[in-house]
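hiii, so i know i said id send this last week but things got crazy w the move. better late than never?? heres the sequnce for the chain we talked about at the cafe, plus the structure i predicted for it. fair warning i was half asleep when i ran it
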Amino acid sequence: MTDTTPPPTPPADRGRVRLLYHFCRLQLPAVRTSEATFLAHLDRTFRLFQPKALGTTWAAYLEGLYAVDWAVCVGCLENQTPAWELLFAARTGRSDCLLVDALRGRAARLYPRDEERQETAVSEFWSGLIVPEGPDGRPVLARYDGQRPLAPWLIRVFQNGHLSRLRRGPGAMALPDDEIAAPMDAPRPETDTRWHEAFVAAARDWLGRADDDERLLLGLRWRYRLTQREVAGVLGLHEGSISRRTDKLRDRALEQIGSRLVSDGWTGDDLEGFVLTELGALLTDDPRLSADQLGRLLAAKGKTLPGGAGS
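okay and structure toks below
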């Protein structure tokens, strides 16, 4: 399916790429991809990402790569059954529901009271993951550049595609804000797209400096979407204390991430809005705020989530 000629990776990055290959093999032992095929896909997705972040380097691309998700995608494109099994078992968003269930949830919002259309939308999307639409189209998975978590990205592609169709017809609609699966990013102007990479680097540094209590608060508020009152009940604290801690975290994020973007040359309007919009998706998807990590942090305090919140 792919050209197996090794891509022209810059000499300075070849060692890192080779380590990445072996890392993916260790993480996904059942997904067997030759090194040449791995390199060909890596070159393809790097070129796919380049127009979205003009001037990006191999080093920057590799730094932002969600390597395991990317390797699962490559395995699916190479039609490897273990990779498809991993994709079918992928969980998404604050509820950790299966990817297919998240897609069905979106379809129910898009086509209310039309179960047949809902089911058709999901089944057509699955078949289109590796089958292009029309002779000049690309399969959905072939459009994934590896710079965002795979499952939430697939949900966005699914929803955006159907919203575009609905807007071309009568009765155009938009989904409510209280999404039932992984949160959608608010649309960003094309001029802001190039700043996503800079934002991710700054936000990961900011989150890396947060302590366990702060990460737990972020996870409960953003991943599980608990209210301040609910968080206070879980942690056994006063609601005012949760409010103050949340405000401090928010202000620190705006200060640290915003300052980093300004130092990188940001000159656009509404820096605060851009940071907060991007931050929601990152906090939901970051592995440091995964359900398992949050569960361990809660268990260390002798706490548990309210019934149903973690299911």
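btw The two ends are 39 Å apart (CA to CA). thought thatd interest u
miss u guys!!
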